[in-house]
Amino acid sequence: MSSMKQLAYWKTYFTPNRYSHDLIPDQTGKVAIVTGANTGLGYATMVALAGHGAHVFLACRSEERALNAIEKAKQEIKGKYPQAPAPNLEFLELDLNDMNKCKKAADEFLSKGLPLHLLVNNSGIMTTPFALSADGIEQQFAVNHLGHFVFTTALLDRIKESQPSRIVVLSSHAHERPVEGGIDFDTLNDEKMSTIVSRYGRSKLANVLFGKALARRLADTQVYVNIVHPGFVDTELVRHNKVLFGAVLLRILETITALMAMSPEVGALTQLYVATSPEIVNKDIRGRYFVPIANEIQPSPFSLDEALQEKLWAFSEKLVEENVRT
């Protein structure tokens, strides 16, 4: 059932937020990686985790932007969390557009010999013009799903060694609007078979399918995998929307966003809930789909199809075998 048809979805607009920064427990001793942590939801998530004592790696493509974000975060944490110790923040180079670079980033982290208690797969691109990744794969699918697939699976043994641990997969309400059939494996790279909107929806459906399949594989462990739709948040994610809407409609969208969208600090609360709340472990919450703020609903029927989940997993593994150097 579409989320728009679920009473639970509409209730979220009329109920108090189920999580807040004040409810985040002490994260001292925890090691976390947040992809795309230099801006938007990733930055807000990184600040909250580091402000509560976690050692956080900012997994980003641009070292310059990441280092600027680290300096900004240090000042912000000093103001927001005056009792917190000096933030422990590090840059980890990660280019999700290139599967070999994703594997290299994971290997770089593993070489440090640290545990990994939390992985937040936050980074993504939205409604970009049609393009192929460094590996010749449709770019939104490559960046939003495949890059994280490579990065996560390469880190998985370390995450299991560090349990209890958690993996957070960011998706979107847009996962309900993919190409016909959900994921068109055979025509993935055919621009004529998809639109700028359906390509984004396809990549976000892949996020849910991956999260569900990963949670099932980890069912007998203390690694808790959950999926999040952060909601309507004022971030840089729509920076390519001029292509989709045109300059005039984009200006209107920007005005609506300024008036109605959540700030990244508020929008990040749902992923912070599944990343840090004791409820996740105490209630054995895994493989679930959450919307703002920390409310669970059912994702689309496509995403609940275990056969499709497994087909995507096998398809992704094959692409990794064909493209990633060992």
From TrEMBL:
Identify the InterPro entries for this entry: NAD(P)-bd_dom_sf, SDR_fam
Q: Does the keyword Oxidoreductase belong to this entry?
A: yes
- Matching Gene3D superfamilies, A to Z? NAD(P)-binding Rossmann-like Domain
Q: Is Oxidoreductase found in the keyword set? A: yes
Q: Name one GO molecular function term.
A: oxidoreductase activity
User: Which UniProt keywords are listed?
Assistant: Oxidoreductase
Coiled-coil regions, chain positions: none
Q: Which domain of life is it from?
A: Eukaryota
Which is an annotated Pfam family here? Answer: adh_short
Q: Per its record, how is this protein called by name?
A: NAD(P)-binding protein
